[in-house]
Amino acid sequence: MANILVFALHYEGAINKNSLGAVSEGARLAAELGGEAHAILVGENVPDELAGSLGAYGASKALVANGPEGLAQPVVDAMAHAIEQGDYSYALFGGGLLGFEIGAGLAARLTAGVVMEVTGVRVADGKLIAERPILGDSAISEIEYRSDLGIIISRLNAFEAKQTGAGAAAVEHIDVTLSPQATQATMITRGEQRGADVDIEGAQILVAGGRGLGKPEGFELCEELAHAFGDTAAVAATRAVVDAGWYPYAAQIGQTGKTVAPKLYLAAGISGAIQHKVGMQSSENIVAINKDANAPIFEFSDLGIVGDLNKILPKLTEAIKAKRSA
Ligand SMILES: Cc1cc2nc3c(=O)[nH]c(=O)nc-3n(C[C@H](O)[C@H](O)[C@H](O)COP(=O)(O)OP(=O)(O)OC[C@H]3O[C@@H](n4cnc5c(N)ncnc54)[C@H](O)[C@@H]3O)c2cc1C
Prior knowledge:
28% helix; seven-stranded parallel β-sheet; single chain; alpha/beta; 27% strand; 2 domains; Rossmann fold; five-stranded parallel β-sheet; binds flavin-adenine dinucleotide
């Protein structure tokens, strides 16, 4: 039997969206393997109700360990303990920096194979094959595990959270003795990045920025324009820039980000890769600013402006402000 243990990150009483996706994917894969997906949560006073709610995403059991929330080492201890005591063939993470850190620590602790940045997983001959983009995302490599435990760390938003309609998961509290290194760090503060609370999917106007913005501060041009448009506008981003840490993941549009259909999608410094296009092509009006007249985004734009966004965006902002105050 090949059971899968899925890490469920939680914050302020809610399970992280990527963890919900990982639980759903874990449940799908475990069913194909003839096993079960179990979730594991670490924290101080994790409510049983929160842990049990993962049943709706396909976890048959939710393990709860007491320990500091949001730090990697205590989770490595808890997951290593659960895996040693249980019957798990795979550990699954829904992406994010914490998942990378925990997965790497777990791999070292248990001498397990680990694949990061996974965008798909499939079952072949009763085993999991992890699919990972390589060579600047131009090809996909397929990896199978030789170790007893295989660790899968997905890209952010690689797995969709799906409610199965099943009831609550059985909650089991586990006693874990934290290793000395797990008690060395203390969480001082925890919060979301700038812009993470913006409702991208609900915005009527999106000013989206890509690598053409040149640097993280380039997003200020997009923010100023969105601000000029008013409350119904928000700033979005391509994967290239969120991966580079220029803007929060919550703003990513595309295949592994969000799908939007605003009244106006203004793309600044975005090439128009197919993975970005699938997330915004249903927008009512697409306006693109790109200095390269041959950029693919012009092929599906209603209006294309060939030029330097550093000159065009501030002028547009001024024009919108003037129009709105007239
Ligand atoms: C499995 C997989 C999933 C993916 N998922 C997503 C996803 O969800 N979302 C996503 O966006 N991408 C995704 N990607 C990545 C995607 O393939 C592209 O790499 C990415 O969209 C490119 O981002 P970009 O347009 O910001 O950067 P680039 O492709 O580098 O384009 C930058 C553009 O800016 C223009 N430019 C430069 N300077 C200026 C200037 N001063 N003024 C005007 N224009 C300028 C350039 O001409 C260029 O066209 C995925 C890839 C893979 C393999």
